[in-house]
Amino acid sequence: MAERRKIANARSLRRQSPDAERRLWRFLRNRQLGGYRFRRQVPLGRYVADFACMEAKVVVELNGGQHVERAAEDAARTQYLTRGGFQVLRFWNDDALLRTEEVLEQILRTLRDTSPHPDPLPQAGEGDSTPATPRRAMDREPPQPVWLPPLALYVHIPWCVKKCPYCDFNSHGLRAAMPEREYVAALLADLDADRKDFGAALDGREIISVFFGGGTPSLFAPESIATILDGARTRLPFARDYEVTLETNPGTVEHGRFDGYLAAGVNRVSFGVQSFADDKLHALGRIHSAAEAEAAVKLAQAAGYTNINLDLMYALPRQTLDGALADIRHAIALAPTHISHYQLTLEPGTPFAKRPPPLPDDDAAWDMQEACQAELAAAGYAQYEVSAYAQPGRRCRHNLNYWQFGDYLGIGAGAHGKVSDAHAVRRRWKTRSPIAYLQATGSPRRIGGDETVAREQLPFEFMLNALRLNDGIGMGAFTAYTGLPATAIAAPLREARARGWLQDDPTRLQPTALGRRFLNDLIEVFLPESPHA
């Protein structure tokens, strides 16, 4: 009886959660708790803590009624954070609302017991008088990521039926039979070698997502995709709710393949449609027709896929505003869960760059973007990144990990990866030639390059990803994932906010509408100073 009453009371507190968080945050933010500073909504690995003091490694979590029903999940969360060196304090919402002083006293006791000599970092953007960290001071103190970000896996399959004239990806048109079996073996050998090379940096970390990109990964049989996924699962732990995306060309798949991919473990498919106008598809060098694209999407839905992305481009050769809107409306009518909508650009080294087609001017392209954004928003597709729109709960987890400066292993010809450890952020890429990659199976020659990101480059690399997000990212993620203090970017933050490109919020790095329009200029503010400047 007492237990049922406890559950009923806790359930009634669900609606109090926002009030409790706001009240506790007001005290944590304004009080000097022995010199310690807390941050709100701090990403810590695969979780986001309600409040965290990174200097003392103390996490404070508030529990509502739903926590009574998911005690096992909370226990796993606490265990995970504890393994990372954090001490976790949990309080009920009503405690934070009605017994705030007691809660604060317990937090303060824990802080003192944990670390009696704090060296607190000032809050990001805390007044214009906060000086930027001198370059020499940064050089003397190498960055050490406070917390390792989530880990994903990218698998590159480099072949396609025909390379499109606008494409600058590492893709190769088929001229003979694909060495499918040999390439699958090379991928798994590559993963084995990366695991050995990165060692302890991968210990205890789960794969949250897998992305098969290309090229055209759907050229590989479902059995090959299953072998890759099964092999990856035996080598690395996968999160319980992992996402697996397979890029596909509408002209290369049939119903039986979708059934097979679903059985193999692929739970999200991404169609490179680009347009629903046959003349535009012909101009882009695509091998499918508009009717084939629509049929492929419907086949995937019939096979049981409920998480589907459509890639569309705008500002195509001789495209009008009405034509761009027609593409968006056709896509919406097919009810995908996600739409990627991006402008055609002329990339160096491509046939389009050498012989440019007649494209709409910048003003016309901007009109297309704005009109299509409005159409997508009206249909329930919220923009969350420069070119990504999703129905509620359907954002692409793999791409979000990129944009939030997460880690990822990259296997396959030309694949790129990023792995952090307690001391540095490391980038690695594989040799681009499929033939050379196969000849170097599992050996060091498969690596095209490997470098540690220089400390002065970290702010720019972080912003290059994070500022693409409409909602931005918490300031705590910058310090946690780069290991740099917030003061390291005080000067560029002041400049960006003075120009109206960043929201004036010390807890978040979020572009304004103006900042999103001039995103490249905003990101360039965080470029390191030239040593000869």
Largest sheet: 9 strands, mixed
- Output the structural class: alpha/beta
- Mean of residue pLDDT values: 85
Shape descriptor reads globular
Uncertain runs with pLDDT below 50, 5 residues or more? Answer: 1-16, 65-69, 115-142
Percent helix among the residues? 40-55%
- Strand content range: 15-25%
Count of separate DSSP helical elements:
22
What is the CATH architecture annotation of the largest domain? Alpha-Beta Barrel
Could you say what the CATH topology of the largest domain is called? TIM Barrel
Query: Strand arrangement, largest sheet?
Result: 13-14-12-11-10-9-8-5-15
Short structural summary:
The protein is of the alpha/beta class and 533 residues long. The chain is built from 22 helices and 20 strands. Helix content is 41%, strand content 20%.
